[in-house]
Amino acid sequence: MDYFMHDKKELCEAIVSLYPDIGVCGIDLKVEYDEPKKAWAVHLHRDDHHLTHYIENTEADNCLDGKQCVSLGLEIAQLKKHIEGEGF
């Protein structure tokens, strides 16, 4: 098993702190490490809409160091549009 600089709770809290509208919009968030992909899996879901986004370890470290998670932000925006019926 690989050495992890941070744990899933830390990453989840960092994502919510960077994107506080996740909770406001009622989007559920789950974070887990995907060992075969060697990346963090971020699962976003609301009602019957689901999206999984993989974050490389370096991006996860950037998130936890207080830097913005650019690709995750794009995925969250896409999920919100999909939930609101605007499509992709």
Biggest sheet overview: 3 strands, antiparallel
Give the CA-CA distance, first to last residue.
36 Å
Q: Strand arrangement, largest sheet?
A: 1-2-3
Provide the succession of SSEs.
Answer: HHEEEHH
In one word, what is the shape? globular
**What's the domain count?**
1
Number of strands: 3
Rg: 13 Å
Structural class: alpha+beta
Percentage beta strand: 25-35%
Q: Estimate percent helicity.
A: 40-55%
Mean pLDDT: 77
**Helical stretch tally:** 4
Low-confidence stretches: none
How does this structure look, described?
This protein is of the alpha+beta class and 88 residues long. It has a three-stranded antiparallel sheet with strand order 1-2-3. 42% of the residues lie in helices and 25% in strands. It contains four helices and three strands; from the N terminus they run H-H-E-E-E-H-H. It is globular. The model has no long low-confidence stretch (mean pLDDT 77). The protein has one domain (8-83). Strand 1 and strand 2 (39-46) form a beta hairpin.
